[in-house]
Design a protein that fits this description.
A hairpin with a 3-residue loop joins strand 9 and strand 10 (about 205). The chain has 2 domains: about 45-205, Fructose-1,6-Bisphosphatase, subunit A, domain 1 (Fructose-1,6-Bisphosphatase, Chain A, domain 1, 2-Layer Sandwich), CATH 3.30.540.10; about 220-340, 3-Layer(aba) Sandwich (D-Maltodextrin-Binding Protein, domain 2). The protein has about 350 residues and is of the alpha+beta class. It is globular and about 55 Å long. Helices cover about 35% and strands about 25% of the residues. Helix 2 runs antiparallel to helix 3 (about 90-110). Pathway: Polyol metabolism; myo-inositol biosynthesis; myo-inositol from D-glucose 6-phosphate: step 2/2. Its main location: membrane.
């Protein structure tokens, strides 16, 4: 008698196939999940590398700022009004610098968030960082640390003090890069294109800057914005007395350098920096990092830390100091309500 074969009904075949697929799934699920995990794993960026890149970006942007001014090709426009109601200038220097700085960083680290003051629709610049690290950074920063790329926000100001740039008040002009990690400023670069002076700092690792030896707070010399020096005068005199010296100046980057001990003789000296209206974070983040690295402080007028991971603007005013009791300064300030300000 011929052996009997096993015959499966269509339902049996379907069940058998499903069981087979289940076995295959269990065999390969671990492999698949590992591949997915590897693909989606967090990228990291070395902060020393990012500091060197930030310096290079600020310098490259600065070259464009200087070239456009020297060739007198500003092509000046108005892009709107500031929160204080002043005309907000835009020049070819702003745009050229933005392209150099933004794409140099973005082409090198395409997965990092980069916020710039300017935007344009031109083709992508082709520049990529050559990974050269300046000798002074190599000397001061050993190795650096790696941080997750998704914790980083980079703020760039391609041309700080555009109004002064158009007026040929070039000592106030800077290009700036700041790197914030989880909202805290850790890298600050402020470059002065017309003198070639560059200040940099990596919080916890070092800086090429230092504080001055003495600061006066009884009363201090307070540096403020040229655009609304009159508005802040009463606020400052109520805090420190009517003998307080108020120093109007252009550019937030310049004002921070005025608190430090730069080798650039073009920079005036101040003891405290105060701003009482809305200010963008690309204006202040680099200076905040520099001051923090050197033991100083930049806070709101209420003494609160400024977060650099969210909205582009700070509405809570600004107080910056170094080598003095910052909270004592906060306590001297008159009551201030941000809802009354721009």
């Amino acid at each position: 008698m011929a052996p009997m074969g096993i015959r499966l009904s269509p339902l049996g075949v379907a069940v058998f196939c499903l069981l087979g697929l289940g076995v295959i799934y269990h065999l390969y699920a671990g492999v698949i999940s590992n591949r997915i995990a590897a693909f989606t794993s967090k990228r990291t960026v070395n902060l020393r590398d990012l500091l060197a890149l930030s310096v290079e970006a600020a310098v490259q942007g600065g070259r464009e700022v200087k070239r456009v001014r020297e060739e007198d090709k500003l092509e000046e426009k108005t892009k709107g009004k500031t929160k204080e109601g002043a005309s907000e200038k835009l020049t070819q220097g702003d745009l050229n610098s933005h392209r150099k700085m933004y794409y140099l960083i973005k082409n090198t680290y395409p997965y990092v968030q980069v916020n710039s003051e300017e935007h344009d629709e031109t083709n992508n610049e082709l520049g990529v960082w050559n990974r050269d690290i300046p000798a002074d950074i190599l000397k001061s920063v050993e190795g650096g640390r790696d941080v997750p790329a998704d914790s980083i926000t980079i703020w760039i100001d391609p041309l700080d003090a555009t109004q002064e740039y158009t007026e040929n008040l070039l000592k106030y002009v800077t290009t700036m890069v700041c790197v914030a990690v989880d909202g805290k400023p850790v890298i600050g670069v402020i470059h002065k294109p017309f003198t070639g002076y560059t200040a940099w700092a990596l919080v916890g690792h070092g800086s090429n800057m230092k504080p001055r030896t003495t600061y006066n707070v009884n009363p201090p010399k307070v540096i403020v914005s040229r655009s609304h020096a009159g508005k802040v005068k009463g606020f400052i005199e109520e805090a420190f007395g009517n003998t307080t010296v108020i120093l109007p100046a252009g550019g937030a980057g310049y004002k921070v350098l005025a608190l430090l001990d730069p080798l650039d003789e073009d920079i005036e000296k101040a003891d405290v920096y105060i701003h009482v209206t809305f200010i963008k974070k690309w204006d202040i983040c680099a200076g905040n990092a520099l001051l923090t690295a050197l033991g100083g402080h930049m806070t709101t007028l209420k003494g609160e830390e400024i977060d650099y991971s969210g909205a582009a603007g700070n509405r809570e005013g600004l107080l910056a100091s170094i080598k003095v009791d910052h909270q004592d300064l906060v306590a001297k300030l008159p009551a201030w309500d941000s809802s009354d300000k721009h």
